[in-house]
């Protein structure tokens, strides 16, 4: 099984440790992983801001770069979702999109494809799970609270494999944290308020860490928490899962 | 980078306690929706069935409209057609004038808000009295609805009580008990019902097969408005049609569960004809709706049944209030409807969305308002309304991401940014991110560098 590793731009620059953890997890389970070095960004920031045309050349290159892999795996739910949901639409009429069918978030890949049932290591902390919007509603990493569907949470399923961990979920378990890419700089007041509310609910669980599949939500909340001197830490779920590797 | 919405939202957020209260009020409705949805095992099938019915009806609208109006006409109802808001207003005025009506009681109708009917009629000497409690309160306060289902929910009972005292509606000064205030409003309205020469209702659903005008209220005010005066005028948008009773049942189960978390409205009235000695008129309004059918990307908006669920679940609506939007319908669906109504005027509402897509999931007709907002944003450039700073940022990212060597160089130098202190970057005009965040730290070595150094 050949897997192409997609490390989105901001993970590359700001949170390489989430990328390293993802790589370690894949290697641990014997996956043949490569990292195409010409990759950059999926184009989501431009698309969400209303400039999808600027995302188009990126989508084209992305698809060419990853088309021969069996799966494409990324430690960022939102970026994976952009490729999965929007690329076929962006490339419609000029290129049949292949990567959209192959892309997965690391949680989804470990849970659904590798179906892992054990992990070494322990994490003796209380963590609150951040169910990021695109992970929930576009990738289906957990059951959206609005829908009448059987309840599941792939992130929690995986975290349960780690020794010593105490897993919590905040009230309003999948309400948006307020990041939303350029939303956070365009609608600052609402975005910050949403972030503050979300942090408060995570902290109310008694958690020491907030974890999730999307470093961008974590970045937003960490930025607010640090500014407001809140005593809570943020860590990508792949880093907890890879703690014992 | 700010938009009209973001500026209004910033003002709203200055009152932290009120923002909290507003958020909790509407979250409570969202929770009621969840409870209701989870009691029906077939909930998701119902939603998808509703969406199918709407798609079918919209694509066969001419046939259904004909059937519907013919059914009503066969029973003596006078049917009028209005292409736009001014035709609608003129038609209503003509009907009232020809019956020498100077006062009309009115049950809630968002269509009349859309057409700005009240000020038009008032200008022509008609006294229009809202009878939905929330709408009546707003009318007396000279405010507009801040939500389509619970239009005055942004007000606290003390605000209502003080206004009632001023208007002479409530006599016990300082009594702000909701039951007492509701009773006062009821007594005051009773007189209006007695005096009015006409009653107007909206139409939640028009059943083509039988020619039923179906009106859902929680206060029975539509029935009061139609059973006292001898003239009943119905205001109805062309999209309100459903084919038959079976399809009506589907929407009936969804409307209230989604909007207020009730199994159904307290009153559901079917009007088929005027009662003996009375007259019933129906005004069927297009006002841009046919253009929506023709819009390949956004026709789905026409499936909306105005339940308000998208507002209740929207984290942005809950924290910015109904008046932060420029269009009279707020929240996710309002952002979309405003774009149809006047894109130049209402495009700044497009910022009011973090694309969390919760609204796509609660919508009973699967309109997917959040996903539609993403699509509308793509039309901003063509409208000449793209935000300059966002465009520059996007062009910058585009140049960077399309050029891997440049991207590599940027990665290498990015950690230098860590040396810039927060106090410098917290100046909003230089770094909008710095308004409420500490800056994230660039890693000393990017993933790419680590990979090249032998991670593999």
UniProtKB/TrEMBL annotation, chain A:
InterPro entries assigned to the protein according to its UniProt record, in alphabetical order: Cys_rich_dom
Top-rank taxon: Bacteria
Domain named Cysteine-rich: residues: 3-81, 127-221
PANTHER family: LACTATE UTILIZATION PROTEIN A, UNCHARACTERIZED PROTEIN YKGE
Protein's UniProt name: Glycolate oxidase
Organism: Prevotella herbatica
UniProtKB/TrEMBL annotation, chain B:
The keyword Iron-sulfur appears for this protein: yes
A Pfam family it matches: LUD_dom
Residues spanning the membrane: none
Gene3D superfamilies given in the database record: Alpha-helical ferredoxin, NagB/RpiA/CoA transferase-like
InterPro entries referenced in this protein's UniProt entry, alphabetically: 4Fe4S_Fe-S-bd (IPR017896), 4Fe4S_Fe_S_CS (IPR017900), FTHF_cligase-like_sf (IPR024185), Helical_ferredxn (IPR009051), LUD_dom (IPR003741), LutB/LldF (IPR004452), NagB/RpiA_transferase-like (IPR037171)
Domain of life: Bacteria
Domain 4Fe-4S ferredoxin-type positions: 295-316
The keyword Cytoplasm appears for this protein: no
Keywords, in A-Z order: 4Fe-4S, Electron transport, Iron, Iron-sulfur, Metal-binding, Repeat, Transport
PROSITE patterns (alphabetical): 4FE4S_FER_1 (PS00198), 4FE4S_FER_2 (PS51379)
The protein's name: 4Fe-4S ferredoxin
Organism of provenance: Prevotella herbatica
